[in-house]
Structures are given as C-alpha cells and as structure tokens.
UniProtKB/TrEMBL annotation:
<dbReference type="InterPro" id="IPR000715">
    <property type="entry name" value="Glycosyl_transferase_4"/>
</dbReference>
<keyword id="KW-0808">Transferase</keyword>
<feature type="transmembrane region" description="Helical">
    <location>
        <begin position="211"/>
        <end position="231"/>
    </location>
</feature>
<feature type="transmembrane region" description="Helical">
    <location>
        <begin position="103"/>
        <end position="124"/>
    </location>
</feature>
<keyword id="KW-0460">Magnesium</keyword>
<keyword id="KW-1003">Cell membrane</keyword>
<keyword id="KW-0133">Cell shape</keyword>
<dbReference type="GO" id="GO:0051301">
    <property type="term" value="P:cell division"/>
</dbReference>
<feature type="binding site">
    <location>
        <position position="203"/>
    </location>
    <ligand>
        <name>Mg(2+)</name>
    </ligand>
</feature>
<dbReference type="Pfam" id="PF00953">
    <property type="entry name" value="Glycos_transf_4"/>
</dbReference>
<feature type="transmembrane region" description="Helical">
    <location>
        <begin position="182"/>
        <end position="204"/>
    </location>
</feature>
<dbReference type="GO" id="GO:0009252">
    <property type="term" value="P:peptidoglycan biosynthetic process"/>
</dbReference>
<comment type="pathway">
    <text>Cell wall biogenesis; peptidoglycan biosynthesis.</text>
</comment>
<dbReference type="Pfam" id="PF10555">
    <property type="entry name" value="MraY_sig1"/>
</dbReference>
<keyword id="KW-0812">Transmembrane</keyword>
<feature type="transmembrane region" description="Helical">
    <location>
        <begin position="307"/>
        <end position="330"/>
    </location>
</feature>
<feature type="transmembrane region" description="Helical">
    <location>
        <begin position="80"/>
        <end position="97"/>
    </location>
</feature>
Length: 380
C-alpha cells in the first residue's frame, strides 16, 4: 500500500523531494523486516494475554515417559502464538510489497490457506478433552488432502505464470549450469511435494522453544538473497545483465518482490522469538508452523531452487528423515528404535543436552547449511 501510494504521487516524491529509494526492492525489504518485527513486539503481549484469557494452553503428550517428565513444565503455556507472526508479516507485506505482483498473490494465499489448516488442527487438539476425542487433531490423511489441495492450486497458477519464462519451467541442480526441461505434470508434482513436505517438516521441528522459528528465520534470509538474485539487475541503473545471468542461475522476472514477503517473515520471527525464547511465554502451534513451512517450499519453487532447498533447510530435512527412519524401523524390526525419540531434537534432549543447547546448536547447523548453499551459487 505504501509503495502504491508513493508510486501514485511519484512526481512529487521524486521531483520535489528527490526520493527514489522506495523503488528499490531491498530498501523496502529492510523496512518490511523492521515493520513486522515492531508489530510482533507490540502485539505479542496483547495476543498472549488474549490466548491465556481464552485458556488456549497446550498440554504436550509424548509416547515417551522420560520426555514427558522433561516437558512437564511446558503445560498450560499458551499456544497458537503463530497468530503473532502471521499478523505481523501480513500487515508488513501489504504495506511494502507491490500488491499487483502475481508471486505476492500466491504467497498471501499460501499463508491464509495453510494457516487455516493449522488453526483447525490446533483447535481440535486444544478442545479434545472437552469434546472427549483424540488429541491428534486432524487425521494425517485429512491434513494431507487440504495441503495437497492448496499446493495443487499454487502449482497450476504458477505454471501458467511461467508460460513466457523459459528458465522457470526447468529443474536446476547445484553445481550444474544448465536447466533440465520439465513437463507440466513433473513441475506440478515437484511443486506440490515441496510445498506440502516443507509445511510438515517445519511442523515436526516445532517442539522446543525457539527451534523452528529460528531456523525459519535463517531460511527466510537465504530466500531473500535467492529471490533477489533471480530477478534483479546488477545495478540500480538497469543494465541488461542480471545477477542470474552472471551466476548462471535461472532468471525469474518479478520474483524479487518476494524479498519483501520473506523479509516480513524474518522480522516477524525476530519479534516472536522475544516471547518464544526459553522459557517460552507462548508456542507457535500449527497455525504458525504449517503456513511458514509451506512458504519456504513456495519460495524455492518460484526461484527454481528446489534441490538447493534440501541443503538450505538441512535442519528440517534432518527432522523429517529422523521421523521417517524411526517409524519405518520400528515397524520393520518389531518395536526397536534407531533414536531414543523422534524428531531428532528430542533424541539429543534425552541424551542430556539442555533445551537451550539443542536449540542453539541446531541454529548453528542451520546457518552452516545456508552458508554452504549460498556458496554453491558461485561454484556453478
């Protein structure tokens, strides 16, 4: 909204005041991050008090006695704190992004769609005792149906947007400078799987104070760089060469506007961590983890870095693989386990690491993975 206001009165702001900075996407991204962080810090206490008033507190239950003992202090801490993040990032995105950008439209849709799935899932869990039903929330197949449904819509319209963008309908591999052409069905399968998988991976990681939000913030910072490199020219004066062509990466026009979206997420995460750091005053809940995870997958699909996302989000990949391995081996071996508990952050907690140690070390791993991923861009 602010961008469109400034653009409408461009002659005044650029002529009288000489103010051109608002046209630069990174300038607006910085302002978006500051805006969302400020909103999260200001609204956080109000939302937390409202959640407490409504008795929206969690009672974590794990199929592991020792883990239940370690986590017993978390009982009654308000959940659904993802509302703080979603409110801050959505307001900031609306304020600073170009609202006529097709990629921004889909980003907003993802947040609303997957946020609604998470909200229903959280509500079913929180009201399970009152309604005398299972605390599992939405069944796995129910959640997947809605996740796939939203992802299919995104994949369909995204593929249509890429009709005149040759690089966008290809699969790009790290260390390889040429894209591999994709058929429409292959593009759709990759997009749907990535958006759904990242949504669930972040959801699995959200089990300790600050763990998932911190890792999301790091991935968001990396996606800001990737989206900027995908679309922007090498100077503000509009030379024909882009960063993408210089680094032999896919060129996706207009993708740079997503920098504002991911900067808004990063800022909202920073504000939320003020209240979610150990000991947490509020938990994110599925209403936060599902849309934020889906947004990570969406950014990789738009920038055409799906394979690279496996490295950028290495912590989330570890968490998801640990669950798959644990469940598979448990069924195959007749009750034996690879880890003491899955997802893997609980394994280290049970081994004697304190919760802050697990979180800080996984943050360091996330930074390491993101750094290596960015280094591969130049190695092409």
């Amino acid at each position: 909204m602010i961008y469109h206001f400034l653009h409408t009165f461009r002659e005044f702001f650029t002529g009288t005041l000489g103010f051109y900075a608002y046209e630069e996407v990174m300038f607006r991204a910085i302002l978006a991050a500051i805006t969302s962080a400020t909103i999260a810090l200001i609204t956080g206490p109000k939302i937390i008090r409202w959640l407490m008033k409504k008795k929206i507190g969690d009672h974590p239950e794990f199929n592991h006695t020792d883990l239940n003992d370690l986590m017993k202090e978390r009982a009654n801490t308000p959940t659904m704190g993802g509302l703080i993040i979603l409110l801050a990032m959505m307001v900031s995105t609306f304020l600073w992004a170009k609202l006529d950008n097709p990629f921004i439209h889909k980003a907003i849709f993802i947040v609303i769609w997957f946020g609604a799935i998470g909200a229903v899932d959280d509500w079913l869990k929180l009201t399970s005792k009152i309604k005398n039903r299972s605390r599992d929330g939405l069944k796995a197949w129910e959640k997947l149906v809605f996740q796939f449904g939203g992802a299919v819509l995104i994949a369909h319209f995204l593929y249509a947007d890429f009709a005149n963008v040759p690089d966008a309908r290809m699969l790009w591999l790290p260390f390889y400078k040429h894209g591999i052409p994709l058929a429409g069905w292959a593009f759709a399968i990759i997009a749907v799987l990535y958006i759904s998988a990242t949504s669930n991976a972040v959801n699995l990681t959200d089990g300790m104070d600050g763990l998932a939000p911190g890792c999301i913030g790091i991935v968001s910072a990396t996606l800001i760089i990737l989206c900027y490199v995908s679309s922007e020219s090498m100077s503000p004066h509009g030379e024909s060469q882009t960063w993408a062509s210089y680094l032999l990466l896919p060129h996706i026009p207009q993708a740079g506007e997503l920098c504002i979206f991911y900067a808004s997420i990063m800022g909202a995460i920073l504000g939320f961590l003020w209240y979610n750091s150990h000991p947490a005053q509020v938990f994110m809940g599925d209403i936060g983890s599902l849309p934020l995870g889906a947004a990570m997958g969406y950014g990789a699909v738009v920038a055409r870095h799906e394979i690279l996302l496996l490295l950028i989000g290495g912590v989330f990949v570890m968490e998801m693989l640990s669950v798959i391995m644990q469940v598979g081996y448990y069924k195959y071996s007749g009750g034996k386990r690879i880890f003491r508990c899955a997802p893997i952050h609980h394994h280290f907690h049970l081994k004697g690491w304190s919760e802050p140690q697990v979180v800080s070390r996984f943050w360091l791993l996330a930074i390491f993975f993101a750094t290596i991923a960015l280094a591969t861009l130049k190695l092409r």
